[in-house]
Design a protein that fits this description.
13-stranded antiparallel beta sheet; 340 residues; 11% helix; single chain
Length: 340
């Protein structure tokens, strides 16, 4: 279930986005209609279902050994209700209708309402000698998305087709949680042999209380994209797009039950990464200014090996190897657009 704080953040973010998309078009129109540069402007609102998955792991040393996978976290079937706002503007000389540059901005926010997590720890290479595993709930949290891009429209009138190569920058943030913990693997003997006795206390099997850990991750960087628009009839349009992203991975966590770690930041992760995104968008124009449609997209990102820095209550810190991460996101949206 979503807590009150999450709902307030959702509606506050949506309100800011709505204010932006209602105000900016009028400001742009006022500034550009007189010069004849503005060709078109569209505000696009789409809402719906999104499901994400994320996994990452660390090793026992910076070199990626002893063992090669010490701890692994997996979030699966993280279900989200999200709303996104797109604003697109076409510019160009009025006497050259075939020359149009395009600017677009997207902002989005979503609330996590269901999902699962698994936290596993190993003393042997390749996920052997597992001494601890908990299966936890992920039924709260927030996701944010921002992007901006610029491109040029190339028209192929014979096929009613438009090609738009794009150069942009995107930022994505996931605020993931772990609650309602259930210990499903517990082997104190393996932990004592690996760490020395009393260093790590493995919880007993079964439910345990008080779990409220958080992992906040950001993916951000530039991308190249291509969008294809087909308009077989005046009031029907199909759009398909592809994006290739290069970027950075940054995350910080609060493992609230670990008294041997610092709070509110227990550790941080840094790595390079890349991602790809594809999508389709079908629109039907039912009014001179209004159109509605459906939209679906899928993206997959991978983070390279990087660095894990763990912080302790006495102010010291240690480093180990970050093996990398994987994130995937699938969306199904209903949409409504207004064209100026």
């Amino acid at each position: 279930m979503c807590d009150l704080k999450t709902l307030v953040r959702l509606f506050l973010g949506a309100g800011i986005c709505l204010l932006f998309v209602l105000t900016v078009p009028r400001l742009v129109s006022a500034a550009t209609f007189g010069s004849g540069l503005l060709k078109d402007a569209t505000v696009h609102v789409h809402s719906g279902y999104r499901v994400d998955e994320l996994d990452w792991s660390i090793s026992g040393t910076v070199a990626g050994t002893d063992p090669n996978i010490l701890s692994e976290l997996i979030w699966n079937d993280v279900e989200i209700f999200e709303t996104q706002f797109d604003y697109t503007v076409g510019f160009g000389p009025r006497h050259r209708p075939e020359s149009v540059a395009e600017l677009r901005v997207m902002s989005g926010i979503g609330v996590i309402y269901d999902g699962g997590n698994r936290d596993s720890d190993y003393a042997g290479d390749d996920r052997t000698l597992e001494f601890s595993r908990s299966n936890n709930a992920t039924d709260a949290g927030t996701v944010y998305d921002l992007s901006a891009a610029a491109g040029v429209r190339f028209f192929w009138n014979r096929a009613n087709m438009t090609l738009i190569p794009l150069l942009g920058y995107s930022w994505h943030r996931l605020e993931l949680t772990m609650t309602d913990g259930v210990q499903t693997v517990a082997d104190q003997g393996i932990a004592d042999d690996f760490f020395a006795p009393t260093i790590v206390a493995v919880p007993d099997l079964g439910p345990f209380s008080g779990l409220d850990s958080r992992y906040n991750v950001e993916w951000y960087g530039p991308y190249l994209g291509l969008e294809v628009r087909l308009q077989p009839q005046d009031n029907w349009e199909l759009r398909a797009f592809y994006e290739y992203h290069r970027g950075d991975y940054f995350a910080e966590a609060d493992w609230n039950l670990r008294i041997n770690l610092a709070h509110p930041v227990s550790f941080r992760h840094w790595a390079d990464g890349e991602g790809q995104k594809v999508g389709v968008d079908f629109r039907y124009q039912f009014h001179r200014h209004w159109s509605a449609g459906v939209r679906s997209s899928y993206q997959h990102w991978e983070a390279d090996p990087g660095i894990d820095v763990t912080y302790f209550p006495d102010g010291t810190a240690s480093r180990t190897g970050f093996n990398g991460a994987n994130w995937s996101s699938l969306t199904y949206h209903l949409s409504l657009a207004y064209s100026f």
